[in-house]
Amino acid sequence: MTEDCDWLQVPPATLDAAARQAAAERQAQLTKPPGSLGQLEAIAERLAGMQGQEKPSLENVHIAVFAGDHGVVAEGISRFPQAVTAQMVANFATGGAAISVLARYLGASIEVINLGTVAEPPAVSGVQQLNLGPGTANLAREPAMTPAQLERALNAGRQCAERARRSGAQVFVGGEMGIGNTTSAAALACSLLDLAPADLAGPGTGLDANGVRHKAEVIEQALQTHAAVRGDALGSLRCLGGFEIAGLAGAYIAAAQIGLPVLVDGFISTSAALVAERLCPGTADWFFYAHTSAEPGHQRLLAALEAEPLLDLGMRLGEGSGAATAVPLLRLACELHSGMATFAEAGVSGEAS
Known about the structure:
Layout: H1 17-29, H2 39-51, E1 61-68, H3 83-94, H4 98-106, E2 109-116, E3 127-129, H5 147-166, E4 171-177, H6 181-193, H7 197-200, H8 209-225, H9 233-240, H10 243-257, E5 262-264, H11 267-279, E6 287-289, H12 298-304, H13 321-339, H14 343-346
Parallel strand pairs: 1-2, 1-4, 2-3, 4-5, 5-6
């Protein structure tokens, strides 16, 4: 890596302990028994520390969807052809995808970043075409990315987070699209957590039991091919990751560095979150984990990050959809925290001392 990625060494922003304490003190005075709103109270307090104000708000949401193809599809690990990635890029931009619907409902800004697909996306406006290559190389047999491609993908994520901050975003939601990316995410997690492929390989877009076994075999081959980088975050990301996973990791690190809270989505996004925390320790202090994915390996990743997901709805779509679904929960936490009366304001007797 070159000086273009020296920014990865910049520590995350410091959380505002005084603002979080002020929020906790306010919570103790609201007209309810202490702790009776459960995680909603903790969310408001954490957001206060992130935003540096006693009463946080979450009006402005920025969603970014990173897309890229994966050469490992050549090993027969997906039910869907790679043409779907480019087709879905167009669907994101024209408003037909699940994340597009969610963004409209939330009043969120959304951008689509195509880092490199095998097929040429249909000509539609609203897509940033970065063209790092026609997808990654086959990670089972060679490094997925060149050092230059990895740098560009990480920097694409960084620039995305910085754009979000300049636009006034109060939370960053990262999504992804890439046929074959559950294989890449599982291989990456196996390398960083020293787990067996059978522990992380799942059905992805609908593989049957035989397909999942084959996926685990392909991941095992990849781990053997790249044994030299096992446990190394940057090396594992280059050899086993994807353009979109690297883009997410770069965005998460940059968001933490500039003090922008992040809502992490499902399995693939959490693999990027793990990479981000390993590359820049403390980054995870800026994460909320939106949900528990139905993809079996997600539980292992969440445990490694000591994460407590907000929702468990059986979702496994990706695109940032689970993270977007959790936004109203964070907004409600802010509204309750700011809008409820204190005992003194309401003239209600508080807890006896």
